[in-house]
Amino acid sequence: MTERSEAVQPARETGRPGGAAPGTGRSSRRPSDGSPLRRVRRDVADGPFIVIWEATRACPLACLHCRAEAVPDRHPEELTTAEAGELIRQMADFGRPAPLFVPDIARLVCDQGALLRSVFFLVPTGRGRALSALSPPEAEDVLHFLYDLGTTIPVKTTEAHHFRRVAVQRLILAEHGADHAETLGPLYRNLCRRARRSGLIRDSRVRRPPVDVNAGRGFVFVSHTGTVHPSGFLPLGAGNVRDRPLTEIYRSAPLFAALRDPDRLGGRCGACEFRTICGGSRSRAYACTGDVLAEEPWCGYEPGSFPYQSDLARHLHTP
Ligand code: SF4
């Protein structure tokens, strides 16, 4: 999918929703006359507002809302890698590009200047319960691989809070000239081999550091019925905005307060020196154990095992 423009921006002057102001370089116009429509500033005869490319119908899920009637396997007549590359190039002629199920699609997208790789780690909830999970060592391999990919396209992870631990560890290991890969497994080596073959791992870009937030700690989710959750993947409500202000729920609900206190975490997370910047996925802990403060099931780190403990203080913070 490639978008030619244009996130809807809040109109600060009026407080009404609408497009960005004229002259900001965005291609939609904020209505100034109460119009219910946001106008496209380009000639739509010259190019589309948005291009959607159904790269594949292969998907392991079976969402009820899916219009594509997804199937497990790729269609034999899907576009080849070369054809897909040409299509993306043509999209770029309109404006700028962006989708991972098709071989080499990551490189094709990268070549067209993609700005971010957004990676979701499975939380076994809803239909996701039927999907197979990574083992903790495999999750570790994937996290380190994603860190390496960050040299090409910045990486953002969802429900992989230990990516922050990996980022800190890799920085310190690099400072010491130590080999990060010696404790990693075959999945890491396979992923790296394939990525290097596709030119996806380079040493040229500035990394995008992961943001230090977690469920209820810098993050809040309001459902379509107004229930306030620490995360969209965590079906524990702390109140409803129909009854209490969101600010009040976020700041003082016991659930949110507990999630912001790393000393209340259980298992390895509770004993972990990285708990103030990580804390693991509270959603996955809850989905797997029923205890929102239990240890992160997909983390393979043994607290205290990182060899350069004295270097950590400048990267961690006290709660
Ligand atoms: S043990 Fe918990 S706090 Fe420590 S790195 Fe793993 S997920 Fe994070």
UniProtKB/TrEMBL annotation:
Question: According to the lineage, what is the superkingdom?
Answer: Bacteria
Which keywords does UniProt give here? 4Fe-4S, Iron, Iron-sulfur, Metal-binding
Q: Which cofactor does it need?
A: [4Fe-4S] cluster
The segment annotated Disordered runs over 1-39
State the Gene Ontology terms under molecular function.
Answer: 4 iron, 4 sulfur cluster binding
Keyword 4Fe-4S assigned to the entry: answer is yes
Question: What Gene3D superfamilies does UniProt report for this protein, alphabetically?
Answer: Aldolase class I
Q: Does the keyword Transcription regulation apply?
A: no
Q: What is this protein called?
A: Radical SAM protein
Known PANTHER family for this protein? Answer: RADICAL SAM DOMAIN PROTEIN (PTHR11228), TUNGSTEN-CONTAINING ALDEHYDE FERREDOXIN OXIDOREDUCTASE COFACTOR MODIFYING PROTEIN (PTHR11228:SF34)
